[in-house]
């Protein structure tokens, strides 16, 4: 798949969702990558064309997408636009966050083509009380093309179709 433009949207108070989103967006090798930081301001009202790919990275709080992240994404719409959904959670569980994000983006005209969850350093982590300290890991091992795995769990509804794993080199997530 040749990607001419990727639009990265992230809500990332601790910069972990940003780093994960940047790593995944870079893996698309788009001719043009536009970053949209929704941490302090909402997305502009826009309709992304189907020729673009959107990458949306959000934190998970108590098993749900951070409510403010969804609020900041309200003005963004697609026109059959492919979207990659990324949920970053801090050492607990992402529960229904991917399902909720999928539903939210689908209602706005996007088509989910990939989704993933990533464990990141918890937003409450401090040097005195570390929680999932040092996450995300510095390198993700090389992925190989394979048969679709059996997926079970709270978000298995999203994975009823064929899964294509992208053959990529190691993805390094830079530390801030």
Question: Which keywords apply here?
Answer:
globular, alpha/beta, 30% strand, 176 residues, two-stranded parallel sheet
How much helix is in the residues?
Answer: 10-25%
Instruction: Look at the structure and give the mean pLDDT.
Output: 78
Strand content: 25-35%
Mind summarizing the main beta sheet? 6 strands, mixed
Rounded to an integer in angstroms, the radius of gyration calculated over CA atoms is 15 Å
Note down, in words, how this protein is organized:
The protein is of the alpha/beta class. It is 16% helix and 30% strand. The strands form three sheets. Strands 1, 2, 4, 5, 7 and 8 form a six-stranded mixed β-sheet that branches. The chain has a two-stranded parallel ribbon with strand order 3-6. Strand 1, helix 1 and strand 2 form a beta-alpha-beta unit. The protein is globular, with a radius of gyration of 15 Å.
Summarize the structure.
The protein is an alpha/beta fold and 176 residues long. The protein has helices at residues 16-27, 67-73, 97-106, and strands at 5-10, 32-37, 46-48, 52-61, 64-65, 76-78, 81-89, 110-119, 139-140, 171-172.
Question: What is the secondary structure topology, with strand pairs?
Answer:
Layout: E1 5-10, H1 16-27, E2 32-37, E3 46-48, E4 52-61, E5 64-65, H2 67-73, E6 76-78, E7 81-89, H3 97-106, E8 110-119, E9 139-140, E10 171-172
Parallel strand pairs: 1-2, 1-4, 3-6, 4-7, 7-8
Antiparallel strand pairs: 4-5, 9-10
């Amino acid at each position: 798949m040749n990607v001419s433009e990727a639009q990265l949207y992230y809500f990332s108070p601790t910069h972990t969702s940003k780093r994960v989103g940047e790593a995944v967006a870079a893996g698309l090798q788009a001719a043009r990558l536009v970053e949209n930081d929704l941490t302090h301001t909402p997305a502009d009202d826009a309709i992304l064309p189907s020729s673009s790919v959107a990458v949306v990275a959000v934190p998970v709080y108590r098993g749900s997408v951070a409510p403010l992240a969804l609020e900041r994404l309200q003005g963004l719409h697609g026109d059959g636009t492919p979207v990659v959904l990324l949920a970053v959670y801090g050492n607990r569980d992402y529960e229904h966050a991917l399902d909720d994000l999928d539903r939210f983006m689908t209602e706005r005209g996007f088509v989910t083509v990939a989704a993933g969850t990533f464990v990141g350093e918890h937003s409450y982590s401090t040097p005195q009380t570390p929680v999932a300290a040092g996450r995300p890991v510095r390198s993700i091992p090389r992925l190989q093309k394979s048969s679709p795995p059996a997926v079970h769990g709270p978000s298995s509804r999203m994975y009823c179709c064929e899964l294509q794993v992208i053959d990529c080199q190691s993805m390094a997530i830079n530390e801030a």
